[in-house]
Structures are given as structure tokens and as C-alpha cells.
Amino acid sequence: MGEMDKHKADPDTQNNGKRKRKQGIDNAIDKLPDDLLTAIVSCMSIKDAVRTSVLSHRWRYLWMFTHGVLEFDERDISSDKTVLEFDNIMSNKTVRDFGYISYHKTRRKRYKFNRMVNHVLNLHQGTSVDSLIVRFCNKIKAGYPSYISEWVLFAVHKKVKRFDLDLSVPGGSPCNYKFPDLVGLLTKFPLNEFVPLYEKSMSFVWCLRSLNVFLSLRSVRLVSVDIKDEVVRYFLDSCPYIEKLCIRGSAATKDVKFVDPLPYLKVLEISECCNIQSLVISVKNLASCAYEGNEISLPFKNVPNLSELTLGGVFCESFIYEPNKHSSYSAQLVKLVLNLQTASVGRQIPPRIDLPQLHALKRLELSIVSQVGRSLLFLTSLIKASPQLHEFKMKINYLVPCSPFMYLPSLIPFPEVSSVEANVFDHNNLKVVEIDGYCGCASEDEFIAQMCSIAATSLETVIIDTDCDYYRDHPNYKYILVIYKPRQDGKLPMMKGVKKGKRHHEDPTENGQMNPVDAKKHADRFVSSFPSSGIKFIVR
User: Fold this and answer.
1) Is-contact 273 293, C-beta < 8 A?
2) Angle CA(389)–CA(441)–CA(346) in degrees, nearest 5?
3) Rounded to the nearest 5°, which phi and psi values hold at 162?
4) Is the Cβ–Cβ distance between 252 and 275 less than 8 Å?
5) Digit-coded pLDDT (tens) for 60-97
6) Which residues make beta-bridge pairs with 292?
């Protein structure tokens, strides 16, 4: 036997050694107390926790006692054998209605998701759960509200700290689920529990408090869920430790007040509530707030610690065109996000606009909706109003019709600002500029050049992102898809409709294939024209 062969390990001996070490580890884990094993399982996702049931007989039911995060997302549900068999039957040559196939595949997927969530929640044996997170595209009214009510009831009984119910439909309109009112919440309890309490107090609120309904809540996020004002008030009055509250897309929320004492409330969002009429926010410890929606009276009354603000919808216009409304708190903001359209037709634009002074602002994010070719230089006035600004990011969304017969909303352009007027100041702290949705328009190039001139001494990085599939996810423009190519004059992007092979003769055309890569090439040529100045350009 050679010298090398003497040193070769015997395969059987080596495998036996591995098996013994593995068995030793497994035995050591199995000797741990149940409470510790449950704590380990509670750190896993629900999918991984259920998988541990096959490890051994002792692990079989441990996942049912998890007290961690129960998170369910419809997008994570893949097709199982039943769905595949269904698809094979429906894809038979005799079946031609592919819309019918797609419709039933979607319904099958939703049925599978509901069945899975209900099964897990019904089997859960623990006394409490840290978080319940459900994301489900609620498109169909019939049948599903009863399932959703069971999820809400589970959150009540398991004393969750975080409750996240997202029923939104990307690119579409959901069938909003109506969150139970106070009476509806009480009826979820056995009669022998709430009837004596009601007879004693004759108050639904007092009954719910006595039953500790949602007493443990720290964070609530409801998306495309209609929640009445009285239930919002109950959350605020009966959840003393609530830290985060988000209500997005509720048609039932109309008149709400967030007023101290709310000592732990730090993050608040009220967005896309189409019937909102009045909003009052007076919370001393509030640090971050978002409001996107209708024009209302200024909601911020006493917010001395507010440092992050997001505004959108028609109300956002007032920050630009009626800055005096926001002067009481604008100087303390550190981060500002404005989802800004060029002004709606009904708004009166003053001849002179003095923007609010943003003395503490470090990061500014803009998402603007405009029309191709309109100047963007007015937005440099926001940079001028923010002397401590470090990061500036702007996402551009253009209104571009793919048909001459398509209605295009009329938008008043931003006030005209010439390059000479925009270049009357220097900025000494701006370090990063990012432009998303770049398609090679002359107005974009002009804006970037102006930013480089204004912050010539401090600017370190300019990011130009050419990814802009316009209206791909926009619910009101789901039939528009812009595929662009810069014209030789750089003023208009190329475009065509969704249907392949169809192009209206009125659309701007150019020889060759239309490809977004051309915008990147245009950006590369544009940045190469800048003299060497120490600025790092990133085109992607």
C-alpha cells in the first residue's frame, strides 16, 4: 500500500463519524426544554416553522405554539398539484377562452391562500402572537369578508402587538373590506362574556376596554380597509402603547383627530382616503407623518418633534403655492417627500412664490407628474430654500398619450424659471443628486446641468436612472405603456401603444427599434460632455 493510500480515510468510517456527530447534535437539541424550542421556532418564518414538524415526533406540533411573526403574502403562494391539474384541463385544445382560464387560475390561487391562512390560524395553540401580517389582493366581494373577519378576530384573541392587513390590488381597484365597528367587535366574543359587561355599563367602548380588545397593539397598518372614525378613536383611546398607525385607502374615514395624550405615537400615515374632510394632528412626540389626499385645512397643530414628512395628492400643492400654511413646522424638517403634480387647473398660482424655509432639511425626495418638454428649473428653488441639504432625489413621471384620441388631463406647468434666474445662488452642502425616470429630454439635461453648476463645490455623485416603464402600475392609466427612444432633438421620447404592431401615424416615429437602452446611451453621451470636475456620474 502506497504512502498516500495510508493517509486516505476509510469512507464508511468517515460517514459513520459524521452520522454520530449529527446524532449527537440532534440529541442535544431534543433535550432542550419545550419553552426554549418554541422560542427557536418563533424566530422562523411561518413556512420554515411548519417545516420543522418533520424533524421528529417531538417537533411535530411545536410550530403551533409559535409566538413570533405570522406573515402571509398571497404573492408567495405557488401552484400546487391541484392547480396544475386544473390548468392542464383548461388548456385543452377544445378550450379557447383564455380569459376564462386566467380568471379561474386567479380564483384558485386566492382560494388556496385563504385556505392556507385559515388552516394555520385555526391550528395555532399559543396564547399570544407578536405580529400578524396578511397581504391579500381583495378583488372579489362574495365569501372573502367572512375569512378576513376571522383574521381580525384572531388578532384580537392573540393579543398581537403588530397588525398589518393589506388588501390592496396593484394596478387595480380592490373591493374594500369593512373593518368591524364597535358592535361588530363585541359580537365576536361569547355572549356570556360581553352581555354582563354591557348591562353594567351600557357602553360598547367600556366593554371593549374591559375585554382588553387590541390593548397590546403597538403598530396598526390597514390598506384598502374601510375603517370608521369611531373605531379609529377607539384605537387611540384604548391602545395606550400604540407607536405606529397607517390608514391607507379607507373610504369610511372622514373626520379624525390625533390629539395628545398619545405619548408613544411616533409614526402616522393617513393616505388616499377619498372622503376625508377633516384631519387634526397635535402629538408632541410624533416624529414621522404622511398625508396624501384631498385639500383640507392644515392638519398640523402642535408637532414640535416632527422631522420626517410625506405629502401627496392635491394637498401637496399647498406646500409649493401656499407656503405660509406650513411655516410653523417646515424649518424643523430633516426629511421631506413631496409627491407633486404640476398644479391642477382650478388652483390660482400667485405671481411670486416664496417657498417655506427648510433650514434643517438633509434629504429631499420629489415624485412629479408632468408633461414632456416642460421646464423643471422651478424645482431648483426648493434646493435654494434648503441650505443644509445633502441628498436630492427626483422621480419623473410623464403624461404621454399613446393615442391622439386619448384624454390627457390638463396640468398647469410649474412657474417659468430661466437658467439665469436658477443660477443666482451656490449650494455648499449638496452631495448626491439622483434622477429616476430619465428618458433623454432636453429639460432633464438642462436640470441636471443646472444642479451641477449650483453645487459645483460640494457635489460628489450624480445618479441617472433610465428605468421608466410609465404607467405600468398606475391604476388610472393601465392601458398606457410608453416605450421610448430619444429624438435627435432630445425633446420628446418615442412612444407606442400596448398592442404590438400597432402605431398611430400621429405618434412621433424614428427609424430603428425603440429600446430603453437608447436613453442610457443618451445619458452616457450627456455626462461625457461635462469637464473633469470631481463629480462621479452613475448611469443605470
Assistant:
1) yes
2) 75
3) -125, 125
4) yes
5) 888 899 999 999 988 776 544 434 443 443 344 333 34
6) 271, 312
